[in-house]
Structure formats: C-alpha cells, structure tokens
Automatic annotation (TrEMBL):
<dbReference type="InterPro" id="IPR029058">
    <property type="entry name" value="AB_hydrolase_fold"/>
</dbReference>
<dbReference type="GO" id="GO:0016787">
    <property type="term" value="F:hydrolase activity"/>
</dbReference>
<protein>
    <submittedName>
        <fullName>Phospholipase/carboxylesterase</fullName>
    </submittedName>
</protein>
<dbReference type="InterPro" id="IPR003140">
    <property type="entry name" value="PLipase/COase/thioEstase"/>
</dbReference>
<feature type="domain" description="Phospholipase/carboxylesterase/thioesterase">
    <location>
        <begin position="6"/>
        <end position="198"/>
    </location>
</feature>
<dbReference type="Pfam" id="PF02230">
    <property type="entry name" value="Abhydrolase_2"/>
</dbReference>
Amino acid sequence: MNHIFQEGSDRSKPTLLLLHGTGGTERDLLPLAKEIDPEANVLSVRGNVLENGMPRFFKRLAEGVFDEEDLVLRTKELYDFLDEAADRYDFDRNNIVAVGYSNGANIAGSLLFHYQDALKAAILHHPMVPRRGVELPDLSTKHVFIAAGKNDPICPSQESEELQSLLENAGANVVLHWENMGHQLTYSEVQAASTWYKKID
Ligand code: MLT
C-alpha cells in the first residue's frame, strides 16, 4: 500500500497508524501525529480504492452504504500490510494506535470489528458502524476514543452511540467525545484525543 513511515525518537512509544478520509492522501493527517505524540513512529497509509479519483479504504454503494464484501477484503489487506510494515520497519506489531478520520476511522473500526490483535487502541474521528450483525472479537484490552459531531449529517448521533455500545459490549474501554459541529475534524477534538492518549498506557 502507498504509505509514509517516519521513525519516532522513542522506540518504546506506539506506532501511530494514520488513515485519511475520502479524497485524502497519506499526507493529510501527519500534523495530527505531531499533536498526539511527536515521539512516536508514524505509519500513514493511502487507501487502495479510488472513487471518481478519490482515494478511500473500501468501496461503498452509496453515501453511508458500504460494500461489505470489499470492506472485509480491504480490512484484511490493511491487516496484512501492518504485519509486513512491522517487519520491514522493525516496530512493535502489538503497539499500534490507529488515528482515522471519516472513511479512515471506518476502516480502523473494521479492523477492531474483525481482528482481536490488529490494534492496541484507536482514535476514531467521525466514524460510523462499519458492519452490523457480526460477532466482535474480545476487545477487553483495547482503548477507543470516538470524536463525533452533534450536527454531523454523515454520522447521526445515534450511530456514534451504537458504535460505542457495540465496542463496549465486546469489552473495549470507550470514550465518546462530542463536538457541536458537523462532519469536520476540529482542532478541539484533536486536542481532546491527545489528552486521552496520554492517559492510556
Ligand atoms: C464512508 O464512506 O466511509 C463514510 O460515508 C464517510 C465518508 O464520507 O468517507
């Protein structure tokens, strides 16, 4: 997968896995990594699917209607890429914290829904429920921060609450942070994510 890897100054820190929104690239979220943990490794990945020329992490049939078959395939592709990248760059595969926005948050959510050992923690900015009707793995050691907008037309507030409860029912420790804005990524939610990150170990 197209990506950028930046080695951090402290090898005991996690690797931040950056996952952009629809139409973005692996460069978009680099400033967030600096805000969250300037000493951590950064692995920023570009989605392999193109929708009218816009990179994404999996296909969709319509706005908010995901192509489940492609979602499952692309989730595995990203999961396998994480194994390869950990070998290639020699970072701890068990210490990856995803930071995703919108479509990138949805593939990060899908990694959590499908694999017990994909991520140590995840910061999900404006995510949706990636799939319904599936049994989640045991997520009891996982920490998840969800940032949602009260007026987000793409992710209604009930959807953020449903995602929180699905993850909590699988044992994850979840914080749901609300902004009064829409779907945009705000500086204040990034700061809230950064404060939360400093409290998880
Ligand atoms: C998605 O397709 O993942 C969501 O609708 C968010 C987005 O617009 O990318």
